């Protein structure tokens, strides 16, 4: 596969969204908005009772922001617009009246950790290590921060944010609540995902919508908050420090 895509299908009440990008499932702005739109579409589809969110490829679930697009940002409005793509995905996941199950088959970096954190239930392979690498390239996990902190707590969020170059193991993610269940193989993980999704697809949709609303209480201001955070990242990505750090990272 060489072309990025976001696709979805619906079967037996289970809506499955799949995304892919050839650069380790990194996310350009267009990809982020396509993903947010797909989540909104399935969330509003009465035939969908539960949503599975997954990516293709083996090494990375999502490598975060597209560095090629970050380097191309030359003004604040473009930067704010790019980072608001992650805000759109997180808010779409938050507001979808269906439980979202994430399938994390590889490493999660930056925005990938934010997407995993925004799922209502998360399955992962025991090789799915994670890190928030934003500070290492002169930015910060401003947009994904609220979702990550909500999921794993402030102390663990600060640990990931400050020690930005160190990978945390999938076991660490499981202990902190990022991953709900770990598996040694994708075959075993997919069986477990299908079993849970099938059970949820036959559960009371009104009850699940009410439960999700309760679970996300206290996040009602995120439409505004995450856009404000996108402005912070959009400002920093223009700095000489960040431009040089991104180029150095790409040239490794």
Question: How would you sum up this structure in a few lines?
Answer:
The chain has eleven helices and nine strands.
Characterization of this structure:
- The protein has 252 residues and is of the alpha/beta class.
- Helices cover 50% and strands 17% of the residues.
- The protein is built from eleven helices and nine strands.
- It has helices at 29-43, 67-72, 76-95, 111-118, 145-152, 154-162, 170-176, 186-201, 205-215, 222-236, 240-250; strands at residues 5-11, 14-20, 50-55, 60-62, 99-104, 107-109, 121-125, 130-131, 181-183.
- The strands form two sheets. Strands 1-2-3-5-7-9 form a six-stranded mixed β-sheet, with helices on both faces. Strands 4-6-8 form a three-stranded parallel β-sheet.
- β1 (5-11) and β2 form a beta hairpin.
- α3 (76-95) runs parallel beside α4 (111-118) and α5 (145-152) packs across α6.
- The mean pLDDT is 96.
């Amino acid at each position: 596969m060489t072309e990025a895509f976001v696709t979805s299908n619906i079967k037996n009440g289970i809506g499955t969204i799949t995304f892919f990008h050839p650069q380790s499932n990194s996310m350009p702005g267009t990809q982020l908005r396509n993903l947010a739109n797909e989540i909104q579409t399935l969330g509003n589809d009465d035939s969908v009772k539960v949503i599975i969110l997954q990516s293709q490829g083996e090494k990375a679930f999502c490598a975060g922001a597209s560095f090629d697009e970050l380097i191309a940002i030359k003004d604040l409005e473009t930067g704010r617009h790019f980072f608001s793509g992650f805000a759109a995905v997180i808010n779409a996941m938050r507001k979808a009246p269906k439980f979202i199950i994430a399938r994390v088959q590889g490493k999660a970096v930056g925005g990938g950790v934010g997407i995993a954190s925004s799922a209502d239930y998360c399955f992962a392979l025991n090789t799915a290590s994670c890190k928030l690498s934003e500070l290492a390239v002169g930015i910060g996990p401003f947009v994904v921060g609220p979702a990550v902190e909500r999921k794993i707590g402030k102390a663990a969020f600060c640990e990931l944010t400050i020690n930005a170059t160190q990978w945390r193991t999938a076991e660490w993610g499981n202990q902190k609540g990022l991953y709900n269940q770990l598996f040694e193989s994708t075959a075993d993980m997919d069986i477990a995902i299908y079993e849970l999704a099938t059970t949820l697809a036959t559960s009371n949709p009104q009850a699940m919508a009410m439960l999700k609303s309760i679970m996300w209480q206290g996040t009602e201001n995120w439409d505004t908050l995450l856009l404000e955070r996108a402005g912070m990242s959009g400002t920093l990505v223009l700095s000489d420090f960040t431009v040089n750090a991104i180029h150095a990272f790409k040239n490794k």
